[in-house]
């Protein structure tokens, strides 16, 4: 999962400076994410990690931080095993 975390941070870093935030900080409440970027984020996760984000998965808690996205990916990957 460390690789996932690094890849997510690199993706986010392409769009805004995240060097000073922790992996647990809510990127939505910090004002980094709008609705259009949220969709880019979902597409990035699907394509990069080969997961299918279902309608039921589209809750902010799955995408609000690097930690939450990493945990979400772990759940999705364990469900396919």
Number of E strands = 0
Unreliable stretches covering 5 or more consecutive residues? none
Strand content: under 5%
Tally the helices. 3
What can be said about the biggest beta sheet? none
Overview of the molecule:
- By secondary structure, this protein is an all-alpha fold.
- 53% of the residues lie in helices and 0% in strands.
- It contains three helices and no strands.
- The longest helix is centred in the middle third of the chain and has 15 residues, at 35-49.
- The radius of gyration is 12 Å and the shape is globular.
- It starts with a helix and ends with a helix.
Quick synopsis:
The protein is mostly helical and 81 residues long.
Supply the key terms.
81 residues; mainly alpha; 3 helices; 53% helix; 0% strand
Write the layout of secondary structure elements.
Blueprint: H1 2-15, H2 35-49, H3 66-79
Helix pairs in contact: 1-3
